Task: structure prediction
Amino acid sequence: MHLRKFPLDRQTCVLLLGSYGYSIKDVTYKWKVPLPVDREEGVNLAQYDLVEILTNEQVLPSSRRDNVSVISVEFRLSRHTGYFLLQVYVPCTLIVCCSWVSFWIDPAAVPARVSLGVTTVLSLTTLGFGGRASMPRTSYATALDWFVILCFAFVFASMVEYACINYIDKVSVQLLTSAGGDRKIQRKKLVVSKRKKRLNRSEFGLNKETFSRIFHWFLRKFRDPWEFVKTSPNKFSAIDIYSRKIFPICFGIFNIIYWIAFIYYIDNEFPIDT
Result:
């Protein structure tokens, strides 16, 4: 079986009927026309659709002096892809989309971003590489393997993106220190510490002061709905802002190339149009 397009593949099962005890001079096999092979109604395969049935009559060479008569039938099957779409393709796509949520989280919220990145990586590892017992074991990568590997690359890239942000922040702080920007560093540390304190609070008691702040926050949002959009980029890194567009666009381009290539351009075991 050729499984490079699994689970988007088609397979051919060949059945040969003949007698190697008698030569073509003794026995000649021929199919009964006009319907040599028929399928019974109501009988279906669990994982395949029977596309067509082809019959043939041929003469095969034998180790003896005379050739032998053989008739053959080819069953051309198309695999059902619904199971793999629901169990692998759609969940992997949703996990990749979940990894993009970190681009909207404040870079100062280190536990939140790291936890989200690690969770998506482990989830994709379990889903894509853990359930291989029901998959065919091949020495080469199938179409499903390529999809899972590239989804894993996108999820891992979102974690690397956050590591780059932290590294750039540290480098910028070191440059400011060497240039004598102690005041700016102190302000930046003060802002970061305030954010961390705000994010690390575990008790959110709804007292009068807290309720008043929440009420005024909602009132301000209703008066100017675009206030958050206008002021929020200041607390996000430029890498996060660009990643919000680059990651979805690249993943969309990958899906377009993947599905077009494996459906229309990469050949099956037998031609689709025959």
In short: Strands lie at 10-18, 48-60, 68-79. The chain has seven helices and three strands.
